[in-house]
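User: I've been going back and forth on whether these two constructs are worth ordering. Before I decide, could you fold them both?

Assistant: Sure. I'll take them in the order you sent them. The first construct and its structure tokens:
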Amino acid sequence: MGNKNPIIKNISEASINRILQKLNSLSDKEKISFLKEQTPPFPRYLYKYRAISNDTSKERIKQIAIDSKFFLSSPESFNDPFDMKCKWVIEGSAFQTRERLKNLFKSLGNSRREIDEKLPRAVVTLRENPDKILGDSVKKAVNSSGVLSLSKIPHNILMWSHYSDCSKGICLQFDVIKDPDTFMKAARVRYNDTYPVINWLENNIQNPFREALLQKSTHWSYEQEHRIIEPGSANAHLSFKPESLVGIIFGVSISQESIDFITELLEERFSKGWNKPNLIKCHTHKEKYALLLYKYITSQ
């Protein structure tokens, strides 16, 4: 069973900025050591599993390899019905409650007269049943967030099956130290058996939704997921430095047609003066249920 969740507090953006300032002052070798020294250690590499099964999936890969940008998904498209679930609590003064509700109603476009009419009853209802008041606004804010899901592992059998078209796709490898400003924003997802508990009065208007997106059921722990969350950026794009794409891993069952598609993309990428990522191939282990990664050798 998972541990009982404490009430979640704010994540400090200031601490992330301090880490980035420190990283940007170090050499690459020093950056590697610095990442290992974090608690918990931050991965040197992050991975994005992708299928190559249709025009949309091919376009997403082209955007990454050629345009150096990620598509940010809306949580509405997630495959886990429990994603974004949380338990809201209201712990604070009556004044804090009224002020937060005023700000909430303003953000939803209510006039001053409408706020004055709604506020007294809303304060009572909020304390009795937070989800009744917060449900719609929380869902709206969460679904408008753009989310990029990454993993710290490139050889998980289930990940290849679920996100790379039954091992017919690829897995892209990104070097964190080549673009810490982008990839250090990838927060580690926590896994638990119970919903995160969030005190609405102790968080700013965005952080509670971020917290709801950073915890999932223990059933998903094999993913070892990291998420970049950009408020208000659902279905938008996030740019990254081209040199941070350092590897492309072919699935066990990838077709020659898909390999040719990736090879052509890399030629176009190289023509722009960018690095050619290492090509790696997955192979099944001869004695156990495991994947082995070897440098890809072309047949030409």
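The second construct, handled the same way:
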Amino acid sequence: MVSEVSTLPDRRIPAETPAGEAAPVSSPLPAIVYIPSDEFAHLSYDEATLYRNPEPMYAPEDAESDLGSEYPLLSPSGEAFLFRKMNYLRYRAAQLLQQPERTSAQTQEAEDHLIDARSARDQLARCSYRLTLSLARSFATNKSDFDDFVSEANVILLGAIDKFDYLRGFRFSTYATNSIQRHFFRVIKRNRKREMVSHSEHESIIASAASADSEFEDELIASDQAAHRIFDHMDRCLDSREQSVIRHRFSLEEEDSGKTLTELAEELGISSERVRQIQVSALKKLKQCFSELNPEAQGL
């Protein structure tokens, strides 16, 4: 069951060159993590790296899938073989790197083992690609979400391959599904929090701007003389687009009853939100200009 797999103890063993022991090779390799097995000490290289099981390594082809040739599904025996091969090669590399006075030839052999182990890991990931696609489809609501989920799933998949204890007898798909789904739930929760914060900040900005300019806007509307005086000087403090927005929003053009944000947005080829932002910015500039022309209005 998934819950049993998710609570398995971490049996990985980090193997690195013992501290304080000098090695004749100047380029140290990173620490190696692998799942240990008692049989590793008795296996030959060929026994661990060559597939000799009478059962097919891959599951029968799915006629309905177009991913079969490039991303085949592993049979239970094929899956166990690749996990054993990957961990055995890492084990061999770790043993070589633990030599107190390892030679350059031993270091090279360890590097070769790690390259082969990485190849086995890539093969496991490639054969699990259908799983990541399926899980991404079940969580995504649009194409952008799907691409993001596939990318996230592939990262988690590689980590799951490294952590999976194949000796427990479970199929890797069960363990990987649990790991990826848990990560997806965390991603969804994180994205929702970001959306809530973004929406809250957006509303706060709008409310703040509206509060700051409402008094000045009311003053312009209430006093026709003051309004026309400041609007006559718009070219001194506003650019052409800002002037157009203000003139149409406050019905300063002849036979103009005033236009909505949506109407102006269609004319200017921008969003209604952008028109609102231009209006807020223009009103702030007009307020400053109004204060310069009317020193007694500095308190507005």
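Notes on the second construct follow. The first strand starts at residue 13 and ends at 15. The longest helix spans residues 172-222.
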